[in-house]
Amino acid sequence: SQQGEEDPQALSIQEGENATMNCSYKTSINNLQWYRQNSGRGLVHLILIRSNEREKHSGRLRVTLDTSKKSSSLLITASRAADTASYFCAIRGGSEKLVFGKGTKLTVNP
Amino acid sequence: EADIYQTPRYLVIGTGKKITLECSQTMGHDKMYWYQQDPGMELHLIHYSYGVNSTEKGDLSSESTVSRIRTEHFPLTLESARPSHTSQYLCASRAGPPSYEQYFGPGTRLTVT
Q1: Do the chains contact at B104 and A86, CB–CB below 8 Å?
Q2: What pLDDT sits at residue B96?
Q3: Which of B48, B88, B101 sits opposite A97 (nearest CB)?
Q4: For chain B, how many helices (H) and strands (E)?
Q5: Which residues contact B25 (CB under 8 A, 6 or more apart)?
Q6: Do B43 and A88 make contact, defined as CB atoms within 8 angstroms?
Q7: Cα gap B92→A26, rounded to integer Å
Q8: pLDDT (tens digit per residue) in B5-63
Q9: Quick check: B1 pLDDT over 70?
């Protein structure tokens, strides 16, 4: 399946620490996107990385992509309590559809 | 905040009722999507549209139907609600290149009793 699979399923850290989440997939991709979802709300787009890119930064976020290993990672540096949310990777292959993984639930303790 | 809206936000309804979940966006996006998400789980695509008069079924079988008569409006209808339809329904629209990001509405949490 094209679905991305996030790892770990849940992560609990202290404020100020870095949080790393991983996403693995099985097919070729056009791009890979990361989204955040606060409890019970819609998703918010964080960052997109194309298949020909290896690393992208946006503020405290860093995303890497290794197409040979079919994996991506999202790093949140200097985490804050407000970063507490679920984080999803989404795969866009050859179609118009995005396929979402099951998400990593991040808890940042103050 | 994205300019995409969903109503109602919460709905509790009895089995057998017909319901329509509304979704509208003011960004002029051609592509729109409906997802179903159970608590703590992944999103499943149930319908999508490439533009006016275009609708397609998604990856998850759904008893719902959609219509796209206007670019900004993409309602989802359940002809006869059942308890198995209890879930959160998320509407999204997609920007074109180079962004490709999807903008999500706040969701409708549906409970069928």
Answers
A1: no
A2: 77
A3: B48
A4: 0, 11
A5: B2, B3, B4, B5, B32, B72, B74, B93, B103, B105
A6: yes
A7: 25
A8: 999 999 999 999 999 999 999 999 999 999 999 988 889 999 999 999 999 998 877 78
A9: no
**Cα B109 from Cα A64, distance rounded (Å):** 34
Average pLDDT, chain A: 93
Question: Which H helix or E strand runs over A56?
Answer: strand A55-58
Distance from CA of A68 to the nearest CA of B (A): 23
Task: Mark out the alpha helices in chain A (DSSP H runs).
Answer: none
Task: Give the lowest-confidence range in B6-20, B30-44, B80-94, B95-109.
Answer: B95-109
Segment A43-57, tens digit of pLDDT: 999 999 999 999 999
C-alpha–C-alpha distance, residues B85 and B92, integer Å? 19
| Angle at CA of residue A106, ends A64 and B34, nearest 5° | 80
DSSP character at residue B70: B
Cis peptide leading into residue B75 (ω within 30°) = no
DSSP assignment string, A63-92? EEEETTTTEEEEEE-S--GGG-EEEEEEEE
Chain B's closest residue to A102, CA to CA, is B42
Which alpha helices (DSSP H) does B5-102 contain, by range? none
